[in-house]
Design a protein that fits this description.
The chain is of the alpha/beta class and 370 residues long. The chain has two domains: 153 residues, 2-Layer Sandwich (Nucleotidyltransferase, domain 5); 177 residues, ATPase, nucleotide binding domain (Nucleotidyltransferase, domain 5, 2-Layer Sandwich), CATH 3.30.420. A seven-stranded mixed beta sheet has the order 3-2-1-4-6-5-12, with helices on both faces. Helix content is 37%, strand content 18%. The chain is globular, with a radius of gyration of 21 Å.
Length: 370
Amino acid sequence: MSEYKVLTINPGSTSTKIALFEGENCLFSKNVSHDAKELDKFQSLPEQLPYRRDTILQLLNEAGVRLDDVDVFVGRGGGLLAMEGGTYEVTDLMLDHARNSANGVIHPAGLGPQLAREFAEQYGAKAMVVNPPDVDELQDLARMTGIKGVNRIIHLHALNLKETAIRHSKNVMNKKYEECNYVVCHIGGGISVSAHRKGKMIDGYDIVGGEGPMAPTRCGSISVANLLSYMKENNLDIADVKKLCTRTGGFVSHAGISDALELTVRAKNGDKYAEMLWNTMIYQIEKCIGSMAAVLHGEVDGILLGGGMVYNEDLVAQITEACSFIAPVTAYPGEFEMEAMAAGAIRVLNGEENLKVYTGKKVWDGFDWE
């Protein structure tokens, strides 16, 4: 592999992760924390850009890290319209859509393309994004619902899901990602369960919209009728329900916490409620894995588990016991997001993958008869 230098930038709600790679080697990494009160001073997300950029530059200067020989700056994507997976050039159109959250989802990840472009212009390099959260490769059968005119969309941890599958294919299967079928899970603050067939993520759950298993801050799939009754009984509006989907559901709703480690400690100390909550989440993950295996018609080369909660041995053991009859279960604790962004750019620079251009048009915009 050529020793290209890549700086990856991953903006989060209260932090910005950065990492400098030379080939596969990480030369420097840092998670820059931002004071919530400082971020509250900004009226909109785009207004945070100079503050985050200057914070990153100050950190790099203090560490003696130079950027004048960086080949590519890769930013976490966000706010973009649905697209195929892959590595994309940061164009003016992508910048406009990221700034204005074209898909309606306002998240700091949308600052990624903007920061990458600013650094790239300053240092005469390229700017890219790799498998942003807006990746949509659903097969048509996964799109229709039981309500005419309402079709499924998808929001998943596409970057980590795909990188986990790519690495497993290469290092374990000795094959290309495009030659394998997997059920891939990201189990962290949010939980993504997805079906991958021959290099495409053909099904999964809209975890922003409330689908899939319960997670530390997310309610997961529930009965529409039950939700309507709950809204009426508690005088909730649509905004309150959306918060249940991403911020106030799951562990937060039941136990008032979002820390999985704290929940498991409570369970070990005899808290039956915490124990049931923990096991219920795992049970729901197992059910979702089974459904994705059915999507693949049982032709599954592996069940891959990634994300922070995969460090928990009990979680891995339970899923392995329940699902190993489908395919071997392999745990990849943590995440490969920074490595994934660098690897995507390097694959393009090495000619292993084509650089894609963001069209600004949804990859799928309805059935032919609509």
